[in-house]
């Protein structure tokens, strides 16, 4: 067997006993949980299984690649087991971890579940931080939760014609599903939209109805200049007043740019009215 130079290699024993099984799943909650169900169907040791979202970037010797098809019934069985054994809070942390872009997120959740099912007190799974997989899930979930808290405070709406509130965000993680319930509760009787420009996803909330994502990826959202042409009368004036307010209340003698960047990271500012 010849191996092309420049490819990262991870070497494993050639015996079938140590064959690594790579299960590739779809980048959705249903896809990942279906992949976990599929992993248990293989009747192999969890140490010999890796669960990946998307194709592996490294060439693994003595490994097999299988593809897990999303299955709503199987995914629901896994979710039910997680909620029953570990509790809703742990399930929520798993969902947060899977909202990151970390390449090992699905594998960490899978192996954390394996650990939890072997514990005498599975409800204490997320306290078992000495385990690498559990610790990984905990760190990923915390990173997502921090960004959710930031976005709830830093997201800004602009009022368009017809009384529609529109907001554009560019988060690191896929958090729109986590923040939509918050804003749906605050603006129950408002028509509003939140657009994730990083992932080209648009969530809409019709007044007094349930929110939802549009059916397909959104590729052609107008630019900021084009959107400004559809502002409701007075929107630009209110934006200027808000900018003036923020500038007026600032105490220049106590200006601390380092602390500002800690409390309000630069990456949030491009979509904030006051900046």
Secondary structure: elements and pairs:
Elements: E1 9-10, E2 20-25, H1 29-41, E3 49-53, E4 59-60, E5 63-67, H2 72-86, H3 88-97, H4 105-117, H5 132-154, E6 158-160, E7 164-169, H6 176-186, E8 192-196, E9 201-205, E10 212-213, H7 224-228, H8 235-249, H9 257-263, H10 266-269
Parallel strand pairs: 1-4, 2-3, 2-5, 7-8
Antiparallel strand pairs: 6-7, 8-9, 9-10
Helix pairs in contact: 1-2, 2-3, 3-5, 4-5
Descriptive notes:
A hairpin with a 4-residue loop joins strand 8 and strand 9. This protein has two domains: 9-147, no CATH class; 155-269, no CATH class. It has ten helices and ten strands. The strands form three sheets. The chain has a five-stranded mixed sheet, covered by helices on one side. A three-stranded parallel sheet has the order 3-2-5. With 275 residues, the chain is an alpha/beta fold.
